[in-house]
Amino acid sequence: MYFVKGLVIVAIIAIMTYLTGKIWRRETSVLETMLLGFATELAVFNVLCIPMNLTQTSFVVLCACFGSFLGLVIVINVYLFLTGKATYLLVGNWKEKGLHLPKMSFHWMLIPALLIILYEMYNMVFLQPLAYGDDTIYMTMVNDIRETNIIHGLNNGSNDYIDISGVSYKYLLTSYYPFLAFWSKICHFHPLLLCKTFLPIFYLILGYGVFWLYAEFFFKDDIEKKSIFFFVITLLVEFGNVVNHSFSRRMLLWNWNNKSVLYTILIPFLIYLAMKYMQEEKFTWLEAGILGTVLMANGSLTLMGVVFSSIALGCMGLVMVIQKREIRILLKTIVAMVPTTFIMALAILISKGILHV
């Protein structure tokens, strides 16, 4: 019963991330749309959560606000579908061409790659240890938020109420664990089962999805080279899982953790989008807004994500300015970094005692 319910919940989360990605009105692959939707959800949740953290608003209010956003996403997608203004998975632009399945290319090298991924999924569901690293702290935090409707204000060790001034700013200015508590609460599913068993399947798909986007970026329409590249990546990930806190370990054992999501999904996705957008003939303001959204999503996971991601994007902007000799690229990059720069400024002011919460 729990197994079936868990798979249904993961399917619902996957569908919502896909629909969220479609509101950007960009005709991209299913994987890129889902990754963009996942980043957008994290970014919106972070924008809602930070002020509610600082004002000690009830978690129920946060759930209602984010639930309203997801409802709006559904309404927008129904409108786009009925008017034929967007192409969806398994459904083309039906107003012009009718319903049809998308064309897909395949190479035999993808078969062993997919078998390795299925084996890794099996290990995640049935063989993952109940406790690893800081699991006890984070699972307790997610469960406390879900059960008490207090976003941050409980001592994880003693379960005593603490004043907001006693909560670390690294929690007040991020929102990933409340995000997990949101899905656990609305789906009526224990966070331990959600985070340690079923959500890792979805995250593994997103993680490998980024690598497939890199394959498409580097090798374009050459399905053979893309398949070989992807197969080699699956081998490196599977047999690299021998060092604690390595990329492979975070992807295969601890991929639900905030830093793991940052390292294995969102930073690689941000770099992919930056390469793709900045090398186009015209880097648009909409694309700058998308990069800013993905940056904010990185910031929702950890303050390290704010710093590392901003530095990475800034360096890429400088390189492209030198290469293309277009100062507008740097200007748009700086604009994309404004929200995360604001969060960094808040973190510095709070940590130095200049700003009190």
For the structure shown, list the relevant keywords.
357 residues; mainly alpha; 16 helices
Helix content: over 70%
Number of domains: 1
Poorly predicted regions: none
- Give the integer mean of the pLDDT values: 86
The geometry reads as: globular
Order of helices and strands: HHHHHHHHHHHHHHHH
Describe this structure in words.
By secondary structure, this protein is mostly helical. The chain has one domain. It contains 16 helices and no strands. Helix 9 crosses helix 10 (223-239) and helix 14 packs antiparallel against helix 15. The longest helix is centred in the middle third of the chain and has 29 residues, at 191-219. The model has no long low-confidence stretch (mean pLDDT 86).
Summarize the structure.
By secondary structure, this protein is an all-alpha fold. The chain is built from 16 helices and no strands.
Helix and strand layout, with pairings?
Blueprint lengths: L1 H21 L7 H25 L4 H24 L11 H4 L12 H17 L8 H14 L20 H4 L3 H12 L3 H29 L3 H17 L7 H6 L5 H21 L6 H17 L1 H22 L2 H10 L1 H14 L6
Helix pairs in contact: 1-2, 1-3, 1-9, 2-3, 2-9, 2-13, 5-9, 5-10, 6-8, 9-10, 9-12, 12-13, 12-14, 13-14, 13-15, 13-16, 14-15, 14-16
